[in-house]
Amino acid sequence: MPVPESIPIYRLVHRDNLPVLLKRGALYSPNSTPNDGLGYRTIHDEGVQASRHNSQISCGPGGTCHDYVPFYFGPLSVMLLNLKTGRVRGYNEGQQPLVYLTTTVERIHKAGAAFVFSDGHALARFTNWYDDTPGFGSVDWGIVGARYWADQPDDNDRQRRKQAEFLVWQSLAWDVIGGIGVLNQAAKTDIEAILADHPDRHHPNIEIRPGWYY
């Protein structure tokens, strides 16, 4: 599958974090989070996060994975499935509170943000990292948005390629977020109320996207 003309990227967050992001006016990497007393609720596997804290990036600004704000190239992530099925310790709320923050690589470029991206899971041994446009040809565009991505006897690398990432260095202004994807109307109403409490901030378009959920 060819590289899309406009490349969308997706970040999954808990709805409880939206007020924090709106107050800060930006998304921050774990290593760049302001010391402002605002509590950010993590929905990630603690073991994976510990490994990402030490995982070195070989191009672009360098650093580790925790120096970047992570996005995926598609919805229906392995992470979302693990959250849905109770495989992440401490999380048992299902999918409705989980929302997608979406933007495009083009908007990232326009904002002047530095970035790197991978062709697979950030912690996998065979994953490659890139910081230039030709590297997008190495991403498997047929699988990054696929609903079914389990490894197969004739292709035991599907799950790794599914988890290709786009990482933004240190922070990304809230204004660069172009849309918010939610599971259903109840979730949309909830997010509309959160945005209404912050009238001076950019309000991305909210779309009901059940196909982005398991």
Write the layout of secondary structure elements.
Layout: E1 8-14, H1 18-24, E2 26-28, H2 46-54, E3 68-72, H3 78-84, E4 98-104, H4 105-111, E5 115-118, E6 129-130, H5 158-162, E7 165-169, E8 171-173, E9 179-182, H6 185-196, E10 205-208
Parallel strand pairs: 9-10
Antiparallel strand pairs: 1-4, 2-8, 3-7, 4-9, 5-6, 5-7
Features:
alpha+beta; 22% helix; 4-stranded antiparallel sheet; 10 strands; 214 residues; 4-stranded mixed sheet
Briefly characterize the structure.
The chain is an alpha+beta fold and 214 residues long. It is built from six helices and ten strands; from the N terminus they run E-H-E-H-E-H-E-H-E-E-H-E-E-E-H-E.
What does the model show?
- With 214 residues, the chain is of the alpha+beta class.
- Helices cover 22% and strands 21% of the residues.
- The strands form 3 sheets. A 4-stranded mixed β-sheet has the order 1-4-9-10. It has a 4-stranded antiparallel β-sheet with strand order 3-7-5-6, with no helix packed on it. The protein has a two-stranded antiparallel sheet with strand order 2-8.
- Strand 9, helix 6 and strand 10 form a beta-alpha-beta unit.
- The two termini are 23 Å apart.
- The relative contact order is 0.22.
